[in-house]
Write a structure and sequence with these properties.
Two copies of one chain form a homodimer. Chain A is α/β, with parallel strands linked by helices.
């Protein structure tokens, strides 16, 4: 796949310049790679900070704004950001009420956010931390011990972000983030490999006529490869993999997510199948989000995330949000 | 490219079922292929109706809602909807103030919307019509006489939609739509061909190492093929092609649009280059939208649309909109 880039080395900096040009409501520090909502620090508000390797856009930079993140720290493509980025972000967004780090469970991210927390605490910033490890496909993987963090991150950022926007203290925002993290499960499917700028070609080999069930968002191996399946068969497999692990006794939020290269027309068709399976399994869906939110560059494929919610979490989901990629309410 | 579908024949119906499941704020008539905002007809409001072949999502169904379209009529992939769809939509959204048809300039669409207008007028509905023909790449093409309608459609739908939402009469909404249509220019670039469900493979042949400048949103031939260019070179060529035709004496709205298969990371980087060129040419950019809005299935590539605006049009752009794919304001 050909790429719309200048040189591989400048891809992240170029994208940050482009974000700055498109979004005057954000402060984008291109050199230090920190994206901050322009009105930060917000008086008396807990600051939410996330970050991770680039290549998953709009995650996380597209989720910075009122009702969601205060700052995002993008690393190189598929590479953890460095501790200095998160420490800078903490200094930029802390209003004195502390900050919450939202960390996808990859070894590099976990380590670098841990070091950043120490740096920030040395500067007198109170730091909470939540690890997102929602991907049920495999335990332990190329880049992590335990489960990988994927689509559930969107729910943690949105729901904890809404709580922070309402003025909840750090302890409470962190508790909500943890509860959401524990209530999310994700499963991804690749129809094609993705193309990193550095490599300029497919990062792994997925033969014509095969798909990979349980793929990671960096193309890490999943559970198994099979002959190409229909949208309905993929929905059956995916939802059953989720429900084998999450046993919701109430409504769920559903994220029917594209990996980047699959057309929205196909994603909506897949959403119909996901809803069919959930209905057959007796799981009520309170809200559905369909689109490319937690991507893997140009990978064709999809993932489904389910997040069990109670009334409070549903109210936080419906609360206003104003970011580049998610916005609703007043 | 592998596809996330059941069978090619059901792709559009499946997607409509998926839209219905995700968007309770829409009424989706899957059988007759009409997507309508749930509160239609809106009292004393002119109804805006668009439509066209599927495969360009979120256009048009993703633009149905308060502040934009009242209804959208999706045809088969890359195939015009039939007159009966638009006539049904007109009946569903007309409040007695009339409806406006927004038509991309392709022979089939122009003909079918014309027939639909006759059907609707026979039922006593007053019908206005505006043709969008913003693509400066070529005159006459595979599917049309004159210029093709592409990204400018988003601006026509948003700005005329805002005017209609404010209660403007049909004559005025149509005049604004026409003025916007005349103020828009687009130019697209393909890095890869797209994959239609029916064909299941690339719809045209674009060799490795080459791109096509001036591509149409159905893969229609553009101006020329060249050896692969950098993001900056593509921005130079694209913006200059636009400015050779549009000579703005004031600010523009910029749509930096993905064709579907190009990652958002790359699109933002491209946006930085588009802004660089516009700045070098002395064109101020009032607002910028970056993302996949007028797509060509899984085609990799991009397009740029510029829309010259005065104070009134800028105010209409900033007015609230609440659709699946575009939303802001209260």
């Amino acid at each position: 796949m050909k790429q719309l880039i200048n040189v591989p080395e400048s891809v992240v900096a170029d994208a940050l310049r482009g974000m700055a040009a498109a979004h005057p409501e954000l402060t984008v520090d291109v050199e230090n790679r920190v994206i901050v909502r322009r009105d930060a620090p917000v008086l008396d508000k807990v600051g939410l900070i996330s970050g991770g390797g680039s290549g998953h856009e709009p995650l996380h930079g597209g989720f910075v704004g009122p009702g969601m993140l205060d700052a995002a720290c993008p690393g190189e493509v598929f590479t953890s950001p460095v501790p200095d980025q998160m420490a800078r972000a903490a200094a930029a967004v802390d209003s004195g009420r502390g900050v919450l780090f939202i960390v996808k469970n990859y070894t590099g991210d976990a380590l670098n956010f841990e070091m950043a927390a120490e740096l920030a605490e040395d500067e007198g910033v109170q730091v909470g931390k939540v690890l997102v490890q929602d991907d049920v496909a495999v335990t332990d993987s190329l880049y992590t011990a335990g489960r990988r963090g994927t689509g559930g991150t969107l729910f943690v950022e949105k729901l904890a972000g809404a709580a922070a926007e309402e003025g909840a203290p750090l302890e409470r925002v962190e508790a909500i983030a943890r509860r959401v993290s524990e209530s999310c499960r994700s499963f991804g499917v690749a129809l094609s490999a993705c193309t990193t700028p550095a490599k300029g070609g497919p990062t792994f080999d997925l033969p014509p006529g095969e798909l990979e069930l349980g793929i990671g968002i960096h193309g890490e191996p999943g559970r198994e490869r099979r002959a190409m399946m229909t949208s309905g068969e993929i929905a059956d497999f995916t939802v059953d993999a989720l429900l084998a692990d999450l046993h919701p006794d109430g409504p769920v939020l559903a994220l029917v997510n594209g990996m980047g290269g699959t057309p929205l027309l196909e994603l909506y068709g897949f959403n119909a199948e996901v809803h069919r399976v959930l209905s057959e399994r007796g799981v009520p869906v309170a809200r559905t989000l369909v689109g490319n939110y937690v991507t893997s560059l140009d990978m064709a494929g999809c993932s489904v995330t389910l997040c069990q919610v109670d009334e409070e979490l549903l109210r936080l989901w419906d609360a206003p949000v104003r970011t580049a990629a998610l916005r609703w309410g007043s």
